[in-house]
């Protein structure tokens, strides 16, 4: 067992025991401050990046939090449901009290398919305090979501949105007949 794995297991054990004192624990480049955490079977990866986690964060199974040359800041009392992906090459900041549904993806970068300059295009993502992000949402680079927003399930978000708003991606279903020569 390597040092990072042991320190992560210690952090989760301390959470289960609910030690009443404040502590700082660091495993690799992941820094957690506080007295209550729940992060069993969560993958933390840092490649020249840093992850900061505030007190009272609860992260469900199957979630990947990866800082690749970037910084991820999780303020306190954040709930991240199952199978989410948070990957930073620049900066991702998630405000206190935010709830994230299952299968949500948050990226601060896109791949540069034109292959001019860097292979990645990146811009910070800022999610305000007390935001509710529904299941299956994708939040893309450069997005700023204000405090107290609700993001509807399945929404794809890119851009800046003011506080106290409801964000819903509306999609149209287009129905067309299949040509007879293909139906055979």
List the topology elements.
Elements: H1 3-17, E1 23-27, E2 30-34, E3 43-47, E4 50-53, E5 58-59, E6 64-68, E7 71-74, E8 79-80, E9 85-88, E10 91-94, E11 99-100, E12 105-107, E13 109-111, E14 120-122, E15 125-127, E16 132-133, E17 138-139, E18 144-145, E19 150-151, E20 156-157, E21 160-161, E22 166-167, H2 180-183
Parallel strand pairs: 2-4, 3-6, 4-7, 5-8, 6-9, 7-10, 8-11, 9-12, 10-15, 11-16, 12-17, 15-18, 16-19, 17-20, 18-21, 19-22
Antiparallel strand pairs: 1-2, 13-14
> Poorly predicted ranges (pLDDT <50, ≥5 residues)?
14-27
Radius of gyration: 19 Å
Oligomer: single chain
Number of strands: 22
Largest sheet strand order: 1-2-4-7-10-15-18-21
Mean pLDDT: 82
Helix content bin: 10-25%
% residues in beta strands: 35-45%
Shape summary: globular
Straight-line distance between termini: 59 Å
Structural class: mainly beta
**What number of domains?**
1
- Number of helices in the DSSP assignment: 2
Structural summary, described in words:
This protein has 184 residues and is mostly beta strands. The chain has one domain: UDP N-Acetylglucosamine Acyltransferase, domain 1, CATH 2.160.10.10. The chain contains 2 helices and 22 strands. An 8-stranded mixed sheet has the order 1-2-4-7-10-15-18-21, covered by helices on one side. It has a 6-stranded parallel sheet with strand order 3-6-9-12-17-20, with no helix packed on it. A 6-stranded parallel sheet has the order 5-8-11-16-19-22, with no helix packed on it. Residues 14-27 have low confidence and may be disordered.
List keywords for this structure.
184 residues; mainly beta; UDP N-Acetylglucosamine Acyltransferase, domain 1; 8-stranded mixed beta sheet; 6-stranded parallel beta sheet; 22 strands
């Amino acid at each position: 067992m390597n040092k990072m794995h042991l320190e992560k297991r210690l952090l989760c054990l301390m959470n289960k025991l609910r030690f009443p004192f404040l502590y700082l624990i660091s495993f690799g480049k992941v820094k957690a401050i506080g007295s209550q955490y729940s992060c069993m079977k969560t993958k933390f990866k840092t490649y020249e990046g840093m992850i900061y986690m505030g007190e009272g964060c609860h992260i469900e199974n199957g979630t990947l939090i990866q800082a690749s040359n970037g910084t991820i800041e999780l303020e306190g009392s954040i709930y991240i449901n199952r199978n989410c992906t948070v990957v930073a090459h620049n900066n991702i900041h998630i405000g206190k009290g935010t709830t994230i549904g299952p299968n949500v993806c948050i990226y601060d970068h896109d791949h540069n398919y034109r292959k001019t300059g860097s292979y990645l295009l990146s811009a910070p993502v800022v999610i305000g305090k007390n935001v509710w992000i529904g299941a299956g949402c994708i939040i893309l680079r450069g997005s700023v979501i204000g405090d107290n927003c609700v993001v509807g399930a399945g929404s794809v978000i890119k851009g800046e949105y003011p506080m106290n708003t409801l964000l819903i991606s509306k999609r149209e279903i287009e129905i067309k007949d299949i040509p007879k020569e293909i139906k055979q």
